[in-house]
Write a structure and sequence with these properties.
two-stranded antiparallel ribbon; Serine Threonine Protein Phosphatase 5, Tetratricopeptide repeat; mainly alpha; 467 residues; SusD_RagB_dom; globular; single chain; 4% strand
């Protein structure tokens, strides 16, 4: 697995050998320390926050936000070429790989795959303890491995296209825990075949809980949600709808902003306890305070928010004084809500509702799809008027607008826009105007594919860039 972070993995093994005295007091040195169900259960108690789930680069690229607390005009005018400058100006000519020595999501997600998911899968069948718990842990590990690879292939490869997936370069699909091995890059089709294989293996165990013990453990709702995401990327909307319908049986709680309206406007600060939020299917985030200090773009504020949006128009979340301080742009607010812990890289019931809506609209059940969209909107817009659409194209337009704000600052906007662009029918050319200059990101731009970091390519020659 030297394709991602060999040195870090070896350091972890050394730390385990030197720092787990409570285990070596019981188990002879040199033997497997993770040989009990309780040990593997503890291994899955991961705090899914930090660099593996940082989606800021993707959110800057798709024009959800500007840099986090970094002066935008100074970055653009600098003679020093940086990734930030490339993302802001959509410079396709820049050598992004040369500037990407390391990459937090790439290294972090493979680290999670190898030191959590694959270790559980390698040890569950031979560990002692409750056999039902061990089956559950295996199922959780399969879903964790699938979702981590799903994020990786969508960041570092082309979006799935049935016509070219068999030849499009993807990412390594890592199933071993051999830190000396090199895992060759798979095609996009091979990655997606493995994604479905892992999800189906998890569901076949029939052991996932209906309600996981907390938002960072995996239950049936998230497992079916992952399956639906994969199938939607593969454009199999009927099968995706079946998976979404199953997921909604276990969690249909939708975050509701209307409760803010009962407060004086000066007190309308939304509260969301990240890991404990009722709408979580799986909680993974940039950090505990995201998106505080993020700044939406001119285009998001002007074109994407519906009039009457409770957060934008009826709360105190957007602070225009702080926006200028953060990014150096006039008329841009900063998101200031430290009591709101967004689910940046996991999934919520909003994912399920909007996936359901898209699948229905694609299946010519436009009225039913619009009803699902309005389930979200009624909790976001005041005064609320339900939207209706006469055909698929109009329904998809409303879906894209609702989805863009519902998933603002998250990895989901990037993945959705990228797959719609690859399909072509609902592609979007993104424009960004800064200091009187308009920059354009086309649907087929290579910038939609992020570079493999040198920390991986120097060990694995199969990791040729996918753009």
């Amino acid at each position: 697995m030297r394709n991602y972070f060999y040195g870090w993995a070896m350091a972890v093994l050394l730390l385990v050998a030197s720092g787990c005295k409570k285990y070596t007091d019981i188990t002879p040195k040199g033997q497997n320390l993770l040989n009990r169900a309780a040990d593997l259960d503890l291994l899955l108690n991961v705090n899914y926050s930090g660099t593996p789930f940082t989606a800021q680069k993707q959110a800057i690229l798709d024009n959800d936000m500007y840099l986090q607390a970094v002066n935008v005009p100074n970055t653009i005018s600098s003679n020093v070429q940086t990734i930030n400058k490339i993302l802001l100006t959509y410079d396709e000519s820049a050598n992004r790989a040369a500037l990407t020595l390391t990459d937090g999501p790439y290294e972090g997600l493979y680290r999670l795959i190898s030191t959590v998911a694959n270790i559980v899968l390698a040890n569950a069948d031979k560990a002692s303890g409750d056999p039902l718990l061990l089956k559950q842990l295996k199922a959780e590990a399969y879903i964790l491995r699938a979702y981590s690879h799903y994020l990786l292939v969508n960041i570092y490869a082309k979006a799935y296209d049935p016509a070219t997936a068999a030849t499009d370069g993807g990412v390594p699909y890592v199933k071993d825990i051999d830190f000396e091995s090199v895992n060759n890059k798979n095609t996009v089709k091979e990655v997606y075949d493995n994604l479905l294989g892992d999800v189906d293996a998890a569901l076949a165990l029939e052991s996932l809980p209906e309600q996981p013990k907390n938002g960072m453990r995996i239950g049936k709702a998230f497992a079916y949600a992952v399956k639906a995401k994969i199938l939607m990327s593969m454009r199999n909307y009927p099968a995706a709808l079946e998976a979404v319908t199953e997921a909604l049986k276990y969690n249909s709680n939708i975050e509701d902003h209307r409760s803010l309206l009962a407060l004086p406007k000066a007190a309308r600060m939304p509260v969301r306890s990240g890991v404990g939020a009722a709408d979580n299917l799986f909680y993974a985030t940039d950090n505990s305070f995201s998106p505080t200090t993020f700044a939406p773009t001119y285009e998001i504020l002007r074109d994407c928010y519906e009039p009457g949006n409770i957060i934008k128009d009826s709360s105190i979340v957007y602070n225009y004084d702080m926006g200028m301080l953060y990014v150096g742009l006039a008329g841009i607010p900063g998101w200031i809500a430290p009591t709101y812990e967004a689910n940046m890289a996991g999934m919520t019931t909003s994912d399920l509702v909007l996936m359901k809506a898209e699948c229905l609209i694609r299946n010519k059940q436009v009225a039913e799809g619009m009803a699902a969209i309005n389930e979200i909107r009624i909790r976001r817009i005041v005064p609320f008027t339900p939207l209706s659409a006469s055909d698929e194209a109009q329904g998809m337009k409303y879906l894209q607008q609702t989805s863009r704000i519902e998933f603002l600052f998250t990895i989901r906007n990037f993945i959705n826009l990228k797959r719609w662009n690859r399909e072509g029918t609902y592609a979007t050319t993104i424009t960004r105007t800064l200091n009187g200059i308009t920059y354009q990101l086309k649907p087929d731009s290579p910038l939609w594919i992020f570079p493999f970091p040198q920390s991986a390519t120097q060990f694995n020659t199969s990791l040729t860039q996918n753009y």
